């Protein structure tokens, strides 16, 4: 008769998951510090807002393609190796910026190139770690909803804590220190994952297909899994509406309605606090209250739409800050919900490609939404823009109630032939370990 595992065995089984989450929080915190320190550094060195904008462009340009390309490499070499390589690359490059600046000097084109490479390295790390999450949560005996809640909370909490700290470091000792902090978090993250996190499955080299074929294979799988396509389409539309809120709508709202740009910080901070709370609360709430992933998705967006309509009434500062908190709270469960479905429905051998592809499609709506929001405020005014955006949320949710594909969100059984990360068209069930 086999005796149950003792406390030491339980700790050993949970340790890899804890280490993975710790590494994710470290790099998310470092990323948030860099969000503040890079523009301050460039502005301080060049004194030019144009150069600062170019630095931001170089730092974000890889987001367009690095995720999709990185997704193929995640499936080729495994999530663990990809995470370690990307962290080492990003940590080394961001550390070179202040080092070169303090020694031989740093020309602006070289700085742009380093920022580009740094972002190129850091972009695929989230998907790489996400590809390891299901196996580690199963091994630790932790519900996937809870594990996703903890992981998705990292960028939100990192931004909430890291951005103010980055500003404080820049004020006290200059932005260079913040870049060293970012470098250290990436390098420590690489060390933690490399030493303490076991690898996931990797297709044997002899069975790998060509790069382009592997990339398009993810698209074919999305077409064969209607629930993934439906979720991606849904998030594409909501990103179009949502990603313009902080950079365009809130600044105008704080200025025109509340009477001063100083309220913008309070609105953003309230939304950030709400998002952190909502993300972490989803784990325990999913056990009894938010048991349906489909209704959680639709319900959260319905609440968001209603709150946007409430902002259209242009309430006073206290109510506006409270509404911003509730908007963040309602948005908190969304990423854990979507990630839970993705991890269960997508074969592990294809997860990197599918995750990167769907993320790229969803993110592509953001710049268009920002432009439309700016034009709408100029053309019809802030109040009607808020009402139009809020009403669109409500209509989208009502239309999605009849979408049969979204009902599969509550069925986490993998499709036939895709269980255990294999069996998708064009893939082999026999996997090596990285």
TrEMBL record:
PROSITE patterns in the cross-refs: MFS
Query: Disordered: where is this region?
Result: 410-434
Q: Which residues cross the membrane?
A: 17-42, 54-74, 157-180, 186-206, 227-251, 263-283, 295-311, 317-338, 350-376, 382-401
What is the top-level taxon of the source organism?
Bacteria
Q: Where is the Major facilitator superfamily (MFS) profile domain?
A: 228-434
**According to Swiss-Prot or TrEMBL, what is its membrane topology?**
Multi-pass membrane protein
Task: Write the record's keywords in alphabetical order, separated by commas.
Answer: Cell membrane, Membrane, Transmembrane, Transmembrane helix, Transport
Signal peptide stretch? none
* Pfam families for the chain: MFS_1
Q: Where in the cell is it found?
A: Cell inner membrane
Q: Which family does it belong to?
A: Belongs to the major facilitator superfamily. Drug:H(+) antiporter-3 (DHA3) (TC 2.A.1.21) family.
What is the protein name stated in its UniProt record?
Multidrug efflux pump Tap
């Amino acid at each position: 008769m086999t005796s149950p595992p003792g406390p030491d065995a339980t700790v050993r089984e949970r340790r890899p998951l804890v280490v993975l989450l710790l590494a994710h929080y470290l790099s998310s915190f470092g990323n948030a510090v860099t969000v503040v320190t890079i523009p301050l550094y460039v502005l301080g060195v060049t004194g030019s807002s144009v150069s600062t904008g170019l630095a931001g462009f170089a730092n974000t340009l890889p987001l367009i393609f690095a995720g999709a390309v990185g997704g193929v490499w995640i499936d080729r070499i495994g999530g663990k190796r990809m995470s370690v390589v990307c962290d080492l690359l990003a940590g080394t490059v961001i550390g070179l910026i202040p080092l070169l600046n303090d020694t031989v000097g740093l020309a602006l084109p070289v700085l742009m190139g380093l920022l580009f490479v740094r972002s190129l390295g850091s972009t695929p790390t989230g998907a790489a770690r996400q590809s390891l999450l299901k196996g580690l949560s199963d091994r630790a005996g932790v519900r996937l909803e809870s594990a996703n809640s903890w992981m998705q909370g990292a960028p939100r909490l990192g931004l909430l804590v890291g951005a103010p700290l980055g500003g404080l470091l820049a004020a006290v000792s200059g932005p260079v220190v913040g870049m060293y902090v970012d470098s250290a978090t990436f390098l420590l993250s690489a060390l933690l994952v490399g030493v303490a996190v076991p690898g996931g499955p990797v297709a044997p080299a002899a069975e790998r297909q060509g790069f382009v074929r592997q990339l398009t294979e993810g698209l074919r799988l999305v077409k064969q899994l209607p629930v993934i396509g439906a979720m991606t389409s849904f998030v594409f539309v909501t990103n179009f509406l949502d990603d313009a809120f902080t950079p365009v709508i809130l600044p105008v709202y704080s200025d025109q309605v509340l009477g001063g740009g100083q309220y913008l910080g309070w609105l953003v901070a309230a939304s950030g606090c709400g998002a952190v709370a909502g993300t972490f609360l989803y784990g325990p709430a999913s056990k009894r209250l938010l048991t349906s992933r489909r209704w959680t998705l639709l319900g959260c967006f319905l609440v968001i739409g209603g709150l946007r309509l409430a902002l259209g009434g242009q309430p006073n500062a206290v109510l506006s800050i409270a509404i911003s908190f509730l908007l963040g709270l309602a948005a908190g469960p969304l990423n854990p919900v979507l990630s839970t479905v993705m991890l269960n429905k997508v074969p592990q051998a294809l997860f990197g490609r599918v995750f990167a592809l769907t993320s790229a499609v969803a993110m592509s709506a953001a710049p268009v939404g920002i432009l439309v929001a700016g034009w709408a405020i100029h053309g019809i005014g802030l109040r009607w823009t808020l009402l139009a955006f809020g009403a669109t949320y409500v209509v989208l949710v009502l239309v999605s109630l009849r979408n049969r594909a979204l009902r599969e969100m509550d069925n986490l059984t993998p499709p036939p032939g895709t269980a255990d990360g294999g069996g998708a068209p064009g893939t082999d069930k026999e996997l090596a370990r990285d």
